[in-house]
Amino acid sequence: SYTNTKPFIYGIMHSAIIDKIELSLDIPSDCAAKLIAGQVDIGLIPVAAIPQVPNANIVADYCIGSVGAVNSVFIFSEVDASEIKTVKLDAQSRTSNNLAKVLFKFHWKKEVIFTTDADAVTDAIVLIGDRTFGKQKEYAFSYDMGEEWMNFTGLPFVYAAWVANKTISQEFIEEFNIALSLGLSSRALVLKDLPERDDIDLEDYLLHKLDFELSDEKRKALDLFLSYIARL
């Protein structure tokens, strides 16, 4: 239900595949929970949830990713990263929370206290998606985690992937990829349907900051990220 998924939704809605599926729109953490529980067959889920999905297999050539800064996955803080001691996590995505933990432990080499208490007062917060638009102005420091991951590893990053919890026919996968590709090639039309905003350049965001191809480099980055999570 985030802006970064709008091209995919457009492609699905404007393809014949829409008549073969039941489409539901949820926040990332709920997409993962439904897939893990077997309530859906395929989900665009935070990649950190993949190890919890029974029989997990990636079923599309596309993802939510970036090569460097993404402009919607942040650590916001009133102090420099070197001075952060407490961090409030974002309830909507376990990938970004785990990415923050990986960056603090392995990139910045800092031990910090993380909390999920929404009322806690902390030095920094993790925030993702449309709720980050314009927020950089409200904090002294903003760390784009796509950019920080690139600084750390030299690799792009995958935030969410299309994952199934069962074997999906090759015929469906091919049709699904065509639908997703249609959406990506229609981003100019998608932009026209989005409400105007003065807190983010949506054209730059959808056409340049986000990188949707699940390339070999992104698969390499995904494997590396999951290996770091296992070491937390």
Provide an overview of this structure:
It is a single chain. This protein is of the alpha/beta class and 232 residues long. It has two domains: 3-65 and 156-215 and 224-230, 3-Layer(aba) Sandwich (D-Maltodextrin-Binding Protein, domain 2), CATH 3.40.190.10; 73-153, Periplasmic binding protein-like II (D-Maltodextrin-Binding Protein, domain 2, 3-Layer(aba) Sandwich), CATH 3.40.190.10. 37% of the residues lie in helices and 19% in strands. The protein is built from eight helices and eight strands, in the order ααββββαβββαβαααα. The protein has helices spanning 6-13, 28-36, 94-107, 145-153, 170-185, 187-193, 202-209, 216-230; strands at 42-46, 57-66, 73-77, 86-88, 113-115, 124-128, 141-144, 157-164. The strands form two sheets. The protein has a five-stranded mixed β-sheet. The protein has a three-stranded antiparallel β-sheet with strand order 1-8-2. β4 (86-88), α3 (94-107) and β5 (113-115) form a beta-alpha-beta unit.
Outline the secondary-structure elements.
Blueprint: H1 6-13, H2 28-36, E1 42-46, E2 57-66, E3 73-77, E4 86-88, H3 94-107, E5 113-115, E6 124-128, E7 141-144, H4 145-153, E8 157-164, H5 170-185, H6 187-193, H7 202-209, H8 216-230
Parallel strand pairs: 4-5, 4-6
Antiparallel strand pairs: 1-8, 2-8, 3-6, 3-7
Helix pairs in contact: 1-5, 3-4
